[in-house]
Task: structure prediction
Amino acid sequence: MTAQPTPSPTVTRAAGPSTLDVSVGPQHPGSGHMRILIRVDGDYIVSSDPDIGYVHRGCEKIAEYRNYVSNIPHLERPNIADAIHLNWAYVLPIEELHGITVPPRGRYIATIAAEMNRIMSHLYWMAIMAGVFSGHTTAFMWGFGDRDLFIELAEMLTGARLTYSFLPPGGPRRDLPYGFEHRLTKLLDYFEKRLPEYDRIFFSNPLLVARTKDVGILRREEAVKLGVVGPVLRGSGVKYDVRKLEPYGAYADLDFEIPTFKEGDSYSRFRVRFEEMKQSVSILRQALHNIPKGPIARKAPLAVPEGEATGRVESSRGEIAYMIISDNSDKPYRVKIMNGSFRNLIALPFLLRNVHVADMPIIYGSLDYWPVEADR
Amino acid sequence: MSQAGPSREETVINQLKTRFPEAIKDGKVDRARRLTITFEKDHVQEIARFMRDEMGFDHVKGVAGVDYPTHKKIEVLYFTGSFTKTDIEDLLVILKTELPRENPLIGSVTSIWQSAHFHERETFEMFGVKFEGHPDLRKLLTLDNWEGPPPMLKDIKFPEMGQR
Result:
C-alpha cells in the first residue's frame, strides 16, 4: 500500500459514479490554513490530496538576504506554538560552525524554556484537538487556560509571550529572572495536580476514547516507511527521540523516559502527548534543581566561518533539523529547514482513505499538523 | 568516543565505498553522528536501495537543493537516517550529488524511500530539479498562478522583499 495522492490507483471506490470531490478548506474550518481535497462516496473518504502552501512565505529564500541574527525572529515564526525549538535548531549549526559551546547554565536555561514550550504546545494541541475537533468545550477552556500560565512565565523569562527570539548564537539572551524558580515550581505543583484531572475528564473520557480508538491506524512499519516523526512515530511504537539520541542542551544530564505506544491509532498519539507532558514536568523539576551557576552565554561574531552544518532538536512535533551553508559572510548562503509538520504531511493522504468523513478532524488533529511550519 | 578500529561513521563510509567503488566519490565524517557522502548522480537509486536493504537506513528526513550559479551546478542533498536499527539510529547521513544547472535531472528515490515524496516535490518546485520516476511531480507550495522560474535559484530575486 502506498500513500499516493488522488487519483490513486489503490482506491477502488472512486470508480463508481457515486463519488464526489469535496474541497475542505482553506478558509480554516479547523483544518488550518490548508486545503484537503477529499473524494467521498457516501459517508466514506475514498482518497485525499492535501493542498498546502497557502501560508508559504519563502522563509528559506528570505533567510539568504538577512544576517544570521536578524534571521532568528522570522525563522521561528513558522511555529508560534513552538518557537524555542525552531530557534534552537537554527542556532545549533551556527554554533557548530563557530566552534563555540554554550556554557552549562545557558544550556539549562534553554532546556527549561524548551520544555515549558513543549507543555504549552501540547496544551494548545489538547485544546484544539479535544476541544474543537471532538466538541469538548471544557478541554478547550482548560487547555488554553493552563497554557496561559506557562505563557506568563515564558514572558517573565524571555520578555515575549510566544515568539521569544530567546536563543541567539552563543547562548540565551537573559538569565533566569528573580523569583522565576519559585514561580515555576509553584506552577509545576499546580500542573501536576491538573494532569490526573485531564486524564480523567478528557483522555479517559469514554466519548473521546470511542472517537479515537482504532481510528487512523498507522502501523509501525508504515510509520517507518513514511518517515513520520515525533509523537506520530512514537504513537506507532518507534522509540525515536533526538533528546536521547543526540543529546543537546542539558538533556544528557537529565533523566526522562520516551513514552511510546504500539497501537498506532489516534488514541495512542493522544496518549503519547499526554505522557510527554508528564515527562516535561519531571525534566523541568530536575533542571531547576541541577542548574549550575556561572555565565550563560558566549559571544559569537556575526560572520560565520565557511562550512556546512546540520543541527537538530526534538520539537513538540518531532525532529527539526536545520542545515546551514555559510560562505564566510554575515548572511547564510543557504538555510534548509526540515521540520516535523512537513514530514508528517505524508501520513495524511495515507490515513484519510476508507474512513468516515466524521473521522477526518480526529485523524487530522491527532497528527498535530501545523500548516505554517510545514509551508515555511 | 574512544574505541579501537573504525568508528561507526567510518564503517558506514567503508561499507558504501566497498560496494560502490566508482559511484562514491568521497565520504567524510563531519563530526560525531554526521557524515557526508558525495556520489555520482546516476547511481542514486542503487545506493539508496543498498542503504535501505543492507544497511538499515529506512527514511529520508529531507531533500535539499543548493544552487551554485558560478559553478553552473545544483547540488542535491538527501538527509537519511534510521528509525529501526539501534546501532545507527543516531546517525544523520547526508548524501550529496551535483547536477548540471541547465538540465538538473536525477532519478527519484520515492520507490525506495517513500518518505522522500513531498521533499522531492518541494525540490522540484523550488530548484527545478526533475526527479525521474516520481509518481506525482507537481507544484506544492507556491501560488497556483506562479508562472515564474523556480524561486529558490540564486539569480531569482524579489526586489519588493529587499532582495538585490
